[in-house]
Amino acid sequence: MVNLNAEVDTVTSALYRARSYPTVMVLRKDGTEIDRVVGYSRAPEFIQEVERYRAGIGTLASMRAEAASKANEPAFVVRYAEKLFYHGFYDEAREQFHRFIDLDPKNESGEVDDAMYTLARMSRKFKDYAGDRRYAQMIIDRFPDSDMFRPALLEIAGAWRREGKLKTARDLYRDYARRFPDDEDAPWALEQVDKLTARIDAESAGTGA
Q1: Residue 66 host element (H or E)
Q2: Model pLDDT for residues 153-193, shown as the tens digit of each residue
Q3: Residues 50-59 pLDDT 10s
Q4: Rg for the chain, CA atoms, rounded
């Protein structure tokens, strides 16, 4: 096993499109990738997943081979979209996430809101903040009872902040803390209010406004 810091060894991380941390690559002896495990998991589940990959089950290659025949199966399409996302094939992932959303208009799977949130994150990654807000707003409009509702509100505030619309972002963070005072993210939202207020005041002082 080899341990690499992707932020230091950028050549290798780019070669394998490692954009999420931690990422464990399962490789052949010649260095070609069989598949990858992204994120943290318990040892038994991790070992089981690696063994499945070594057997050619659930890999990106196997899913690509099944994609045409299972193109109308929501459960497969969303897993395929996630697989593409974790492998860094963002354009293909986006296409499959949209396909999944179309296949499950009533969110019978309970995963459409998660797919929309992933699309928002993908937009954010490429600094498409309008797209980020658009997907987050879709969650808010369509799934007010979703567990992704509050993260979507914060995602919109964050998109405005990254775009430099500091007052808009500050108002949204403040509104979040007021609406959900007992939420675990409320203190963090108030911290953003304070930081943004300081930035706004500093910018106003700098321009003499």
Answers
A1: helix 60-66
A2: 999 999 999 999 999 999 999 999 999 999 999 999 999 99
A3: 888 888 888 9
A4: 20
Q: Residue 196, SS3?
A: helix
Please give, one letter per residue, the 3-state secondary structure of 77-137: HHHHHHHHHHCCCHHHHHHHHHHHHHHCCCCCCCCHHHHHHHHHHHHHHCCCHHHHHHHHH
In whole angstroms, what separates CA 120 from the centre of its chain?
Answer: 7
Token pair for 3: 């341990």
Kindly compute the dihedral angle of the four CA atoms of residues 19, 21, 87, 97, in this order, to the nearest 10 degrees.
-90
Query: Mean of the per-residue pLDDT values for the chain?
Result: 89
Residue 17 CB neighbour total at 10 angstroms: 15
Please, are residues 184 and 176 in contact by the beta-carbon 8 Å criterion? no
Determine the 3-state secondary structure of 130 from DSSP. Answer: helix
